[in-house]
Amino acid sequence: xxxxxxxxxxxxxxxxxxxxxxxxxxxxxxxxxxxxxxxxxxxxxxxxxxxxxxxxxxxxxxxxxxxxxxxxxxxxxxxxxxxxxxxxxxxxxxxxxxxxxxxx
Length: 104
Description:
Layout: H1 4-18, H2 24-28, E1 40-45, H3 50-62, E2 66-71, E3 83-86, H4 93-103
Parallel strand pairs: 1-2, 2-3
């Protein structure tokens, strides 16, 4: 039987096997091959590179993955995704990252 710390370590290791974080453009050049019908790809969309980052999510959908975008604003390109969430915080981009970071 696992104690509290052992259970926590087991859960963390299990999640690390299934959940990975990549820069959106890095994802396109390697891990995109893992984006199949069993994958959920969640993109944190920044203001500066929003168009390119949304394009990566759209590309993941062509491989069969479900794709969800989280960003400051909704964009027409997000309507083709499986989910899209707008923070609408009014904060500068570096502060928006902090909000998303706390939710993860």
